[in-house]
Automatic annotation (TrEMBL):
InterPro entries for this protein: ClpP/crotonase-like_dom_sf, Enoyl-CoA_hyd/isom_CS, Enoyl-CoA_hydra/iso, Enoyl-CoA_hydra_C
Domain of life the protein comes from: Bacteria
Keywords on record: Lyase
Protein name per its UniProtKB record: Enoyl-CoA hydratase
Any matching Pfam family: ECH_1
Family statement: Belongs to the enoyl-CoA hydratase/isomerase family.
Gene Ontology molecular function: any one: enoyl-CoA hydratase activity
Enzyme class: lyase
Record-listed E.C. numbers: 4.2.1.17
Membrane-spanning ranges: none
């Protein structure tokens, strides 16, 4: 019997379902009132897992969801603080952030995301880059970078303009405005929305249909379509570099302090660029 390819993961849980559907759950051990956040371990695992899924012969489709009261809660504040303070940590997390985006894009298996509650940060990368993104109507999709005081890197530049157009992308990314699941479907940011009670049943219905389809036809169609994302790679690389440059600047420290104090940030001064 082959070794479990996911046995070393600690922040992610996995469940196998019929027809080769793999359920990936972010926030291992989170209770129903909690919200999974990306600490050092989870950020690394979320970047690496797509390579293991790609090589997993038993998996034909993936459903990714969050444990607890939401899909994902963004970066753990201690991780953000470590990135601001330590060049080595910042460089490592930059590489993980790059790998997360490209590994999701290059994973040959079709991915279905099921987003409920808040969807922020590293989890949102997989949520919006998934091949089929499904959100509860009441979900709240937030790209929180500018609120933190850094450029909107991660997945934003590579996929938001393609999904919802430049005008909407700039509005939500520059202002850090939340997008409800219903509005996200209306502007094309997600594939479809459903009532929260129907979210997981619909996600597994879609994943099961993908898993029972022609693997070559579906995977090769995904590969061809994702060349649109690969062509945006230079824009993504630039946005990620600017984001991580921001982690060495003063604004991120005010952003962090304001989040800890639960107040609005006060970003004074002007940008050097």
């Amino acid at each position: 019997m082959s070794q479990d390819p996911y046995q070393h993961y600690q922040s992610l849980q996995f469940k196998r379902h019929p027809n080769g559907v793999l359920e990936l759950i972010m926030g291992a051990g989170a209770n129903k009132s909690g919200l999974s956040t990306a600490d050092h371990r989870m950020h690394q695992e979320l970047a690496d897992v797509w390579r293991d899924i790609d090589r997993d012969a038993q998996t034909r489709a993936v459903v990714i969801r969050g444990e607890g009261k939401g899909f994902s809660g963004g970066g753990d504040l201690s991780l953000v603080e470590d990135m601001a303070d330590d060049f080595t940590v910042r460089a490592r997390v930059w590489r993980e952030a790059r790998d997360l985006v490209y590994n999701v894009i290059n994973c040959s298996k079709p991915i279905v995301s099921a987003m409920h509650g808040p969807a922020v940060g590293a989890g949102l990368v997989a949520g919006l880059l998934a091949d089929i993104s499904i959100a509860a109507k009441t979900a709240r999709i937030i790209d929180g970078h500018t609120r933190l005081g850094v450029a909107a890197g991660d997945h934003a530049a590579i996929v938001w303009p393609l999904l919802c157009g430049m005008a909407k992308a700039k509005y939500y990314l520059l202002l850090c405005e939340p997008v409800t699941g219903e509005e996200a479907e209306r502007i094309g940011l997600v594939s479809l929305t459903v009532d929260e009670a129907d979210l997981l049943p619909k996600a597994f219905e879609v994943a099961d249909k993908l898993a029972r389809g022609s693997s070559t036809a579906i995977r090769w169609t995904k590969y061809a379509l994702n060349n649109w994302l690969r062509s945006a790679g230079p824009a993504f690389d630039a946005s990620l570099a600017l984001e991580f440059m921001g982690f060495s600047g003063p604004d991120v420290r005010e952003g962090l302090a304001s989040l800890r104090d639960r107040r609005a940030p006060d970003f004074g001064g002007d940008a050097p660029f």
